[in-house]
Amino acid sequence: MPGIAGDVATGCVGPTFGIVRPAVPNTRVDFSPYGQSVFADAVDAVQSVDLAYDALINEVDAGKMRVFLSDVMFDQERTADGRRVPIPFGKGDCTVFRKVMSTEDTIQEFAPALRTEAQGKAFRLALQVLGDLCGLGTNYFDLDNVGYVKMATEVSSNNSALMRNIRRNENSLQGALVDVSRAVMACERRMGKSLLEEGDVSVIYDDSVVQDTASEKQQDMAEVAAGLMTREEYRARWYGDAAGGSDAAGALQVW
Q1: d(CA 160, CA 81)
Q2: DSSP secondary structure code for residue 201 in this structure
Q3: CA separation (Å) from 48 to 123, 133, 226?
């Protein structure tokens, strides 16, 4: 295309980019190298959530109390031709109605029975199906599973599908992070920075959602102070040092 270079010599031995794809099989195009959205197979579920939500709101709106008033409750005025007509009030109000030619039961109320419980169950089911089809688990969007603090082990056990999905996406993302990290180091060297070779690149993910990382670190530090764990073991666990020591070289960790 005009104005776009065909090839650019970056001076890097590898690509200066990383391709990120969700860990979801592409069901649209067979043998495609491109990924697809996690919502690609859940379009019908998204529509069902919208339909159930609209039905719930319409149920509440249509189930409002109606008040029927007799003609004698309205003020009247004369028109140009001498007729007497009621003076309307609250034209935008859909809860008060006039009973034409009626003088009995001046005020009559009507409150229809609401089906919000059944509508709420349908809405909750639609959310559960959406979470399941997206690989997030049935509890991810569930309305009844909120409101109190859970322990890390409880979060992991109650959201096993979500945890497995996170691990799959972490494994898929690792290659792109490694490529980008190598590209950043190569670009720095190209700009004149004197950097050591990165060697083996490893990615360390923070599992603080599932594990209480701060508490575990404090526990390990206490064990190091008590002599039950060495500093090399501590660094190998929390900093990914392959050799263990603080002066270990030839490895790059991406957090």
Answers
A1: 77
A2: E
A3: 8, 13, 58
Looking at this protein, which amino acid is placed at residue 37? Answer: S
Report helix, strand or coil for 252: strand
What is the average pLDDT score of the chain? 78
Place 253 in a pLDDT band, splitting at 50, 70 and 90. low
Same domain, residue pair 234 and 135: no
Instruction: Tell me the torsion sign for CA atoms 39, 43, 47, 48.
Output: negative
Q: What share of the chain is helix, strand, coil (3-state, %, to 5)?
A: 40, 10, 50
Q: What mean pLDDT is predicted for residues 145-164?
A: 60
Whether the CB-CB separation of 75 and 86 falls below 8 Å is answered with: yes
Q: What is the pLDDT of residue 209?
A: 56
CA distance 229 to 232: 8
Tokens for 87, please give them.
């003076």
In a domain, 79, yes or no: yes
What is the residue type of 97? F
Please tell me the least confidently modeled range out of 9-13, 63-67, 172-176, 222-226: 9-13
Whether residues 184 and 244 share a domain: the answer is: yes
Q: Which domain holds residue 185?
A: 161-254
**H-type alpha helices, the chain:** 43-62, 116-133, 152-158, 160-190, 213-225, 231-238
Which helix H or strand E contains 86, and what residues bound it? strand 84-86
Residue given tokens 């526990």 in the structure block: 219
Residue 100 tokens, joined: 């034409």
